[in-house]
Design brief:
By secondary structure, this protein is an alpha+beta fold. The protein has four domains: about 10-140, Schlafen, AAA domain (Methyltransferase, Cobalt-precorrin-4 Transmethylase, Domain 2), CATH 3.30.950.30; about 150-220, no CATH class; about 230-400, 2-Layer Sandwich (Heat Shock Protein 90); about 415-475, Arc Repressor Mutant, subunit A (Orthogonal Bundle). It contains 16 helices and 20 strands. The strands form six sheets. Strands 12-11-15-16-18-17 form a six-stranded mixed beta sheet, with helices on one face. Helix 10 (about 255-270) packs antiparallel against helix 11 and helix 15 packs across helix 16. The longest helix is centred in the last third of the chain and has 29 residues, at about 400-430. The mean pLDDT is about 85.
């Protein structure tokens, strides 16, 4: 597709043009349903124009700016439409702002998707001239046929010679389909099971076969057709692979079953807790690992691994750490220098299916939350391994180690200090003339401790003293 750089002059031309198959204008700045439907419709490119679509936000029907001012919050919200998982597969889009005397114009530029149909909340939207509409069954079929020329990733290729009799149709129809399509569309869907599978990229009419994604998710004998499609769990009584093996398990079968089994296994086998004293009279429960973080790392391995490799995902449980290693290094635009801020999808259909099933909440946010969850639990930061040829690894250390204990103690002290500072500010808001000794008594720390915190708060411009030390008062600095 020929890309033309979007300039202010180009935008002026778009403003002067009539609404068409490539242009939509709106004065709304928070109608995310309307925006998402437009993105979906432009992505589907039902007319096979091979041209980008433009959603112009902050523009009247006559093409004049509405006086909109583009804020960072608004731009972040619009940019988030690409990765919030409501539009599947992910659209290819960019967001730019152009300022004019009468206001800002925000332009969402959307490229035709190579893998239609694209859906928003389970519905396929298309452009019919200058308006949007929900695609009919025939129009969806046209989009599916258009996709066949763009088959490139492994998961969308046909699993040659394997028809619908090789997959668990009941699982697809009863467990997956109701999550993938909205209720109204589902109630009117009278297509054959092959057509339903094909609309979600699980079947190829050209080859009369399920796709590799269909086989991976619903196959009756997945490993017979895709030998490396399993997870090998091994627990070692030590910190190397030479240590004694004390437990092992093979997670095999269809992905829809593996994902459910992993959830239970992590919660009841991996996660342990022990009491930790937080004062002379109190104790809390300390987890060795936060469940969500381990689950996310395994989900990422399943989503991003190379399924053309015969090697499994390795889930290795050592005495002081857990390692997850998956075949296939960083993919596409993802590089060691930009990971995890930049991501790419080796298996876009599998990624979409995991979002539909609820195992992925938002795209491109998982690693950031993993780091947060580990920090909150007191674990050291995860260590990523990009150096081994053909694999990607991540290692997470347990809190049940000397380093983990020290990390937890530091975290506890930080939280205690933060609570003390919050109490000081709250008490000062109630009584600006409160004394250091009164603060000391109400908070439960020494006078010197209060003086130290007051000095820190003043240094960070969160608190100021008005007047003399004896006759003055404190003021909390707001909006900092």
């Amino acid at each position: 597709m020929n890309q033309v750089e979007l300039t202010k002059e180009k935008v002026q031309a778009l403003l002067g043009d009539m609404e068409s198959e490539q242009i939509e204008r709106t004065i709304s700045k928070n109608d995310t349903d309307k925006f998402s439907q437009a993105i979906c419709a432009f992505s589907n490119d039902i007319g096979k124009t091979l041209r980008n679509g433009y959603l112009l936000i902050g523009v009247h029907d006559d093409g004049t700016p509405s006086g909109l001012r583009a804020t960072d919050k608004l731009l972040q919200s619009l940019g988030g439409l690409r990765s919030d998982g409501n539009i599947l597969p992910q659209p290819i889009m960019s967001t730019q702002v152009f300022s004019f005397p009468d206001g800002d114009v925000i332009v969402l530029e959307i490229q035709p998707s190579p893998f239609p149909p694209v859906r928003y909340k389970g519905r396929t939207w298309i452009r019919v001239g200058p308006r949007k509409a929900i695609a009919s069954e025939m129009e969806e079929r046209l989009l599916i046929e258009k996709r066949t020329a763009n088959v490139s990733t492994y998961d969308i290729r046909p699993s040659l010679g394997n028809g619908v009799d090789e997959i668990k149709l009941k699982t697809f129809l009863e467990n997956y389909l109701p999550n993938a399509l909205d209720e109204e569309t589902l109630s009117k869907d009278h297509r054959s099971v092959e057509e339903k599978l094909a609309s979600l990229r699980f079947y190829s009419f050209n080859y009369a076969s399920v796709t590799n994604a269909g086989m991976l998710l619903f196959g009756k004998e997945v490993e017979r057709h895709i030998p490396g499609a399993y997870i090998q769990y091994v627990q070692f009584n030590g910190d190397t692979e030479a240590s004694e093996i004390i437990n092992e398990k093979k997670f095999t079968g269809s992905l829809i079953d593996i994902l459910q089994e992993l959830d239970t296994f992590i919660e009841y086998v991996i996660i342990q807790q022990k009491p930790v004293a937080i004062s002379a009279l109190k104790e809390s429960k300390q987890l060795n690992y936060p469940k969500w973080a381990l689950r996310e790392l395994l989900m990422n391995a399943i989503m991003h691994r190379d399924y053309e490799s015969n090697a499994p995902v390795k889930f290795y449980h050592y005495s002081q750490r857990i390692e997850v290693i998956n075949p296939g290094g960083l993919y596409g635009n993802a590089r060691p220098e930009n990971f995890p801020n930049v991501n790419d999808y080796r298996n876009p259909v599998i990624a979409e299916a995991m979002k539909v099933l609820g195992y992925v909440n938002r795209f491109n946010r998982g690693i950031a939350r993993v780091k947060f969850e580990l920090e909150e639990n007191g674990n050291p930061a995860p260590v990523f391994d990009y150096d081994r040829m053909g694999v990607f690894g991540v290692s997470v250390n347990s809190t049940f180690t000397e380093a983990g204990e020290k990390n937890r103690e530091v975290k506890t002290r930080e939280k205690t200090r933060e609570k003390t500072r919050e109490k000081i500010l709250t008490l000062i808001k109630r009584n600006k003339e409160i004394t250091i000794h009164e603060l000391s008594e109400q908070i439960g720390i020494t006078d010197k401790g209060v003086e130290y915190q007051l000095k820190k708060l003043r240094g960070e411009n969160l608190l100021k003293r008005v007047g003399s030390a004896k006759g003055g008062h404190w003021e909390v600095v707001e909006n900092q």
